[in-house]
Amino acid sequence: MEPIISDMVQRYERGGLTRRQLIQGLAMLVAAAEAPAQQAAQQDAQSPAASPDIQPIVATGIDHVSVLASDVERSKKFYQDLFSLSVLSEDKEHGIVRLGRKRVIVSLRKEKPYGRVDHFGVGVEGFNKEALTKNLQARGLKPQENWQYGFFVKDPDGVNVQFI
Q1: Which residues lie below 8 Å from residue 124, measured CB to CB, with a gap of 6+?
Q2: pTM for this structure?
Q3: Residue 56 preceded by cis peptide, ω within 30
Q4: Assigned fold of 37-163
Q5: Percentage above 90 pLDDT, the chain
Q6: Which residues contact 144 (CB under 8 A, 6 or more apart)?
Q7: How far apart (Å, rounded) are the C-alpha atoms in residues 131 and 6?
Q8: What pLDDT, on the 0 to 100 scale, is given for residue 156?
Q9: How is the chain split into domains, by residue range?
């Protein structure tokens, strides 16, 4: 993980990443190193902000990261070479290439602003869209759905968080 963090800091220092992108990337790395779901649920239940009326949403890990690329073929080759990923699917209509091994890890899309994390997908234990919609609405969130981000909400800074 250290080489990835070092690369991100260097890109930030050279102006290739904004402060927000650096923080988002570091946060995703931390989330990917996930603690066991039981520990997270236990901590949520002990949180003073936890409401007995709203069940915690238990994340099982980062499902995928979507990156906006200026040259999808070049980015595809980069991620394939770096992580030994294969093309799992392509959406030619929307210019999306999904890379992974058994499941999608990185999704590339040719769209501006290039070089940004567009959204990330979080695996949710026992995913049920109807129940999750009610849960999110009880938290004051407005779930949305579209072809770009699937089923998602926006975080306080406008980052798209997809639920899988």
Answers
A1: 57, 58, 59, 60, 132, 163, 164
A2: 0.62
A3: no
A4: 2,3-Dihydroxybiphenyl 1,2-Dioxygenase; domain 1 (3.10.180)
A5: 51
A6: 151, 152, 153
A7: 40
A8: 79
A9: 1-33, 37-163
CA angle 32, 51, 45 (to 5 degrees): 50
Rounded distance, CA 124 to CA 7, Å? 29
Looking up tokens 């129940």 gives: 131
User: Which two three-digit tokens encode residue 120?
Assistant: 């990330």
Angle at 76 between CA 115 and CA 92, to 5 degrees: 95
For residue range 3-36, what is the model confidence (pLDDT) as tens digits? Answer: 677 666 777 678 876 777 767 777 776 656 544 4
Tokens of 130: 């109807």
DSSP 63-126: EEEEEE-S-HHHHHHHHHHHH--EEEEEETTTTEEEEESSSEEEEEE--SSTTEEEEEEEEETT
For residue 22 the two structure tokens come to: 């650096």
